[in-house]
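Sample intake sheet
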Amino acid sequence: MSPAEGADAAERDRLVAAVRELVEAEGWAAATHRRLAERAGVDIEALYRRFPDPAALMSAVAVRGFADLAAALAAARAGAGDRVGWPAVVSAYLDFAYANPEVYDTMLAHTADLTLGRDPAPGAPRAAFAELRAAVAPLAAGRDPDTLAELGWALLHGMVMLTRGGRLRPDTQEQREEMAVARLLAGP
């Protein structure tokens, strides 16, 4: 990568971080190009060249979110050592989703073209799915690891959305997480 390309990538990363912070603090309605340009201290025309519309901003935030989620899941699996990584991945996934609700929604509700399990998925969503798959593969016991990873992903996503929506009993959150870890995806 040339120095100019490196500077361009750093500027893009800085802008994505700025929009992500703004979105988490105030929601997507606040993430106008004008507001982002002011917040990031860049010329609005330069911002439009990088991100011509709100969909481009959302996609960039979602890709960064998937990369951050993949890193969190990888760290959780690595921290599990020789033990099965699924319990650590469950905690890391839920922690990420609850700590970053706007980014999480952008990743999984506002950018349908970024899919975890479908080939060819973009790099960051593919990496997040690979971490989920790696965590459940030791539990597959003859079952398809990709399907098991999709089931684990659906289970975690459902828990996040129903919990955030106030549709599940708050006093049983710990019990639900324990069941997702120890029972639901246990081998046949």
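Comment: Residues 70 and 128 are 4 Å apart (CA to CA). The two ends are 49 Å apart (CA to CA).
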